[in-house]
Design goal:
single chain; alpha+beta; FAS1 domain; 7-stranded mixed sheet; 6-stranded mixed sheet; 12 helices; 23% strand; elongated
Length: 300
């Protein structure tokens, strides 16, 4: 017989903790600014409630970096209750999501609405927020009585630009695309609720198309029926992140035509032309943008 001073539990059993999410944050010095923010936004009642919740908790260093990024003081941030509430709720999920169950590559919807996504990289899990900023998850599965906390090294921000605004902000890469959207009077649609997925050709892709068709940019922009058909062929009527892009089957566009995506992440359009998807998952408030290196064309 051997005497031990502690009960040993199997790996699949965890003793319940007596502290809720708010009490846990208050007890840990690295979350003191987060705790102040929760109180300032009057969210302590919610986050001390039954839950369960999942909280992505920024450290004090993360908040310091945010203040520098926004060019404001901590006092100004804590006094801006609408902003503070939106930002904090963007870090909270309904339900307990442990590390093993994190939906990698999928759209994740927090309490504040909008989405963010989490990817698995060599160094660990990385969150991409609605403004396409990234935060590392530095610790996971900090259990509380009403949920779980994952620690992050950057404060996440909810999306503040729709598809058209994102394209404009990405100038000059998408300046011709923006001109085309305006010329076809599609800016209202692509600024709407959505969600949409846009396969966005770069300026170089449009330049190559003009050479291929033997026309000028002015002639293309003036041909509204052609322009509308081509542009809506680049749009899907749903948000489809990289992980959800169907490889092989025909994908139906807003234009009504279809294209396919192969295992190399290249689009084969209705005319058998190939466009490579060079960048994926640019998140926006009303969908997602994937960048392509060639303008795709619907069937003649």
């Amino acid at each position: 017989m051997h005497v031990i001073d502690r009960v040993i539990l199997p790996n699949n059993i965890t003793l319940p903790t007596s502290r809720n999410i708010v009490q846990t944050a208050l007890a840990l010095p690295q979350f003191s600014v987060l705790a102040e923010a929760v109180v300032a936004a009057n969210l302590q009642g919610t986050l001390a409630g039954t839950g369960p919740f999942t909280v992505f908790a920024p450290t004090n260093a993360a908040f310091t970096a945010l203040l520098t990024e926004l060019g404001i003081t901590k006092e100004a941030l804590l006094a801006d209750v609408p902003l503070l509430t939106a930002v904090l709720q963007y870090h909270v999920l309904n339900g307990q999501v442990l590390r093993a169950a994190v939906p990698v590559g999928q759209a994740i919807t927090p309490l504040a609405g909008g989405i963010f996504k989490i990817d698995s990289r060599t160094a660990g899990l990385v969150v991409t927020d609605g403004r396409n900023r990234t935060a590392n998850i530095t610790a996971t599965d900090l259990r509380t009585s009403n949920g779980v906390i994952h620690v992050i090294d950057k404060v996440l921000l909810p999306p503040n630009r729709n598809i058209v605004e994102t394209a404009i902000a990405s100038a000059p890469e998408f300046s011709i695309l923006v001109e085309a959207v305006v010329a076809a009077n599609l800016q209202g649609t692509l600024s709407g609720t959505g969600p949409f997925t846009v396969f966005a050709p770069t300026n170089a892709a449009f330049a190559a198309l003009l050479t291929e068709l033997g026309i000028t940019k002015e002639a293309l922009l003036a041909n509204t029926p052609l322009l509308t058909s081509v542009l809506t062929y680049h749009v899907l009527p749903a948000r489809v992140l990289r992980a959800g892009v169907p490889v092989g089957p025909a994908i139906t566009t807003v234009q009504g035509g279809t294209f396919t995506v192969n295992s190399s992440l290249a689009i084969i359009d209705a005319r058998g032309r190939r466009a490579n998807i060079t960048t994926t998952d640019m998140l926006t408030s009303n969908g997602v943008i994937h960048v392509i290196d060639r303008v795709i064309l619907p069937a003649p």
